[in-house]
Design goal:
GO molecular function: oxidoreductase activity
CATH class of the largest domain: Alpha Beta
Pfam families: ADH_N (PF08240), ADH_zinc_N_2 (PF13602)
Bound molecules: NADP nicotinamide-adenine-dinucleotide phosphate
Protein name: Enoyl reductase (ER) domain-containing protein
CATH topology of the largest domain: Quinone Oxidoreductase, Chain A, domain 1
Shape: globular
Order of helices and strands: EEEHEEEEHHEHEHEHEHEHEHEHE
CATH superfamily of the largest domain: Medium-chain alcohol dehydrogenases, catalytic domain
Number of helices: 10
Oligomer: single chain
Length: about 325
Amino acid sequence: MERLMLAVQYNAYDGGANALQHVEVPIPSPNKDEILIKMEAASINPLDWKIQKRILWPILPAKFPYIPCMDVAGEVMEVGRGVTKFKVGDKVVGLMSPFSGGGLAEFAVIKESVTASRPPEISASECAGLPIAGITALQALSQTIGIKLDGSGERKNILVTAASGGVGHYAVQLAKLGNTHVTATCGARNIEFVKSLGADEVIDYKTAEGAALKSPSGKKYDAVIHCANEFPWSIFETNLSMNGKVVDLSPTLGSVMNFALKKLTFPKKQLVPLLLLPKGGDLQYLVDLVKQGKIRTVIDSKYPITKAKDAWARCIDGHATGKIIFEF
Ligand SMILES: NC(=O)c1ccc[n+]([C@@H]2O[C@H](COP(=O)([O-])OP(=O)(O)OC[C@H]3O[C@@H](n4cnc5c(N)ncnc54)[C@H](OP(=O)(O)O)[C@@H]3O)[C@@H](O)[C@H]2O)c1
């Protein structure tokens, strides 16, 4: 007889939190290169509700019903025959494919290639915050901007927008491991919090200075990790140093066209769209930084799976400080 598990799924596009349904479905089986985990924690990202709102239509969800959420942490219960790095009983964290989805369930299947070991001293919840938000911040800083996180590179001025959010709070901490001066934007209530992450200067985004993205000390930015919503290019342009780049995490058709146009005309200042690449090595690097006490996951709120609708609504609301976590 098939073993069942509790899960949360939706059956069609749109509908927000109210469209989530609590169901019992069969426990999935791992393929050759996959691992079955018993879930201990998961985190929710704006991408999860944006998929429900058709941001990747008609590609995702590949089929309905769809179990959302991709950031997962738990204990290995079973491994596919091709898996070499993990065994039953290991504690792990992983990033599920958006095509399969499946994180909001008691058991989940992840590919070995996007799984990292979790040391016993780091909680499942702290690790579950890392995959999407942490890898995005890491790839934006180290791969797109070229910041050396051992501090050996030349000094750069960085602006992180929405520094109080999931991606932003990792981006500030990672940027400070490099040789950087960090300016950050956030709401007034989070200014002290963002300073505690290491930001050198913080601007309230609801003030005139925040709207103009002006550094209080008059610095021009060599790079912007842009985690907030769309902003006019003209505002970025006046604040960038000669070769400054804006890494845009939520590119629109307009911003991608802008990027293509600017590439064609060889300007030095650029808007660079970024889409994270799921890499187990990057995830392990982040877990190791947490273990060494160099970065931390700040948890906005924790929910049991039975309160999935509340967590979903909180994420759509867009006012989380750090990460929204499910504990199983
Ligand atoms: N391209 C990719 O691969 C990729 C990967 C991950 C994420 N993303 C995108 O990156 C964006 C950020 O994700 P996230 O997980 O960090 O979001 P999040 O955690 O939901 O961000 C919430 C935070 O943003 C702050 N905020 C909102 N608008 C702001 C503004 N205009 N200026 C300054 N702060 C503002 C909020 O502060 P208040 O409460 O004070 O308003 C809140 O603390 C999302 O659009 C997400 O879809 C893209």
